[in-house]
Design brief:
The chain contains 10 helices and 13 strands. By secondary structure, the chain is an alpha/beta fold. The protein starts with a strand and ends with a helix.
Length: 281
């Protein structure tokens, strides 16, 4: 297939693009800066300048393609918690890409989303049939999914767990926070979290564009949700740091998700079944 990847230089895109090429697909990378385009061209990857918020560039970028993969995000970093650009990408950007893909007759459309659309489910392990209970920051992801589901394209939505692994910065951030004694358990640390190694998320994306049924939704998480207490104590042990104390802010819902649908329908199996194999010491 000839596949346009929007978000090709992001944390996930950098893992998806080479895997698509390895599987024999032709990739067109949408980038915002000329130096990024030059980088791709030097290794033989087609690239075009554009912006997901500028529909005319998307119309050009999707011409002649068979499929589109939407990986674009703008997650705020550090103390900057302004989510407005990410919301625009999810809402306005998604509508732009869907319009361009429809106009140019693309058949496949793959959308990255997040399991956080389910909200807090306590100790329950949820699958794709669970009700959506998004917080304010995540509402734009639900809106994004609704735009995709309303389209006439052959779409698939992949709801990813919390990323870690190369390029995410999360592994290093946890370790450094332990050493700085700033890593604290959310509440008492009893909440659940479903992780996904970025390599396994990328593998699921490639499988979806090749094999997913039309109008399908999958959770992309590893095999076993983990309590924050167990995860943080594991990280602390391997940097010889103190066990994190309780009483930190609860920023994310308690949410454990099942990956059984993805495994059964796409024959996908994570390389890193849990954090124990995914986190290096």
């Amino acid at each position: 297939m000839h596949i346009v990847v929007v978000g090709s230089t992001g944390v996930l895109g950098r893992h998806v693009v080479p895997r698509l090429l390895e599987r024999g697909h032709k990739v067109r990378a949408l980038v915002r800066r000329e130096e990024q385009a030059t980088m791709f061209r030097r290794v033989g990857i087609e690239s075009v300048l554009g912006d997901i918020l500028k529909i005319d560039t998307l119309v050009q970028a999707t011409q002649g393609c068979d499929a589109a993969i939407h990986l674009a995000t703008a997650i705020p970093k550090g103390k900057d918690m302004d989510w407005s650009m990410n919301d625009r990408i999810r809402r306005e950007g998604t509508q732009n890409l869907l319009t361009a893909a429809t106009q140019n007759g693309l058949h496949r459309y793959i959308q990255q989303s997040v399991i956080l659309v389910y909200g807090d489910h306590g100790a329950q392990i949820v699958d794709e049939t669970a009700s959506l209970q998004p917080g304010a920051v995540i509402q734009s992801a639900v809106d994004m999914e609704n735009y995709v589901r309303a389209s006439e394209l052959d779409w698939c939505i992949l709801r990813g767990g919390l990323f870690y692994g190369p390029g995410t910065g999360r592994d290093e951030g946890w370790r450094q926070a332990v050493l700085d004694k700033t890593l604290r358990l959310p509440g008492q640390g009893d909440g659940l979290i479903s992780l996904i190694h970025v390599v396994d998320m990328a593998r699921a994306m490639v499988d979806a564009v090749e094999k997913a049924s039309a109008h399908s939704i999958f959770n992309v998480v590893d095999d076993k949700p983990v309590r924050y207490r167990d995860l943080y104590q594991y990280v602390a042990a391997f940097v010889n740091g103190p066990d994190p104390e309780a009483g930190g802010p609860t920023l994310l819902p308690s949410l454990g998700c099942s990956n059984e649908k993805l495994k059964s329908e796409l024959d996908w199996t994570p390389i890193y079944p849990t954090y124990r194999s995914g986190l290096l010491y």
